[in-house]
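Sequence in, structure out.
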Amino acid sequence: MNSNTLIETFYSKDGRKQSPIYQTDTTFYIEFYHDDVLISAVELKEHNIHYAQSIAENFCNGILKLDPWRANESIKSHLHKSCNQ
């Protein structure tokens, strides 16, 4: 059974967005909150903490835009583009 450990949390300047990063025994994952509502989460199986931090920070800084009803597609698209650069 994997244990979840909170590594750190990024916040937007206005405090409306936050992205906690968790680590399990095998992966990292990030939750994306806007106005204290969880709008999405992503699991990063083959990436390091620096990559996870970059995604969390990009969300909080408005670089990674997520609409609640399309969040998973947006993240997958962003990750796919980042991996191909």
